[in-house]
Amino acid sequence: MSKAVRISWAKVEFQRDLRNPSDPVRLGVIIVGTLQDRPFVALIGREPTKNNPPSELKEVGPLGFSQLIGWTGTIFQDIHQAHQEQRDLKEIFAFLSSRWRWNLYVTDADEEPVKAGETPRDVASRLYERFVGEPFSSAGERRHRHARPKVPTNRRRMWAPAEVTVPFQA
Q: How far apart are CA 40 and CA 158, in angstroms?
């Protein structure tokens, strides 16, 4: 009987106003684990587009909004630094939480079982959909014509998908 595989995951959220907290904007998820004897960290999320912010960010000032542009790349740099410092996978969330703790922050980690045959991206996509409330689709994914929502052609995209998977050496 094989042992159930579990990964750790944390949410990435944005608090619009630290002086008057409200429900945070849900941005994405970070997962850490080992699948098929390969340790990894994966991050998927959404970033607002610069010139067309989503309605939930309309009241955010320029400084707060600037934190959101490129957040996935910046967190990736911190994950890469943790890897270069040879931190254990179990320390990743504490390391990220110590750096990301203001308007844009990483929550405490939870555990999640992995279904048979799931890849890191499969798990991250499933958790992203559960947390953010919408399916994740990367910019490079090809969509079927019948599945594309009817959106006026003059409406620009408000959220841009972003994803990074980092294999770690054991």
A: 30
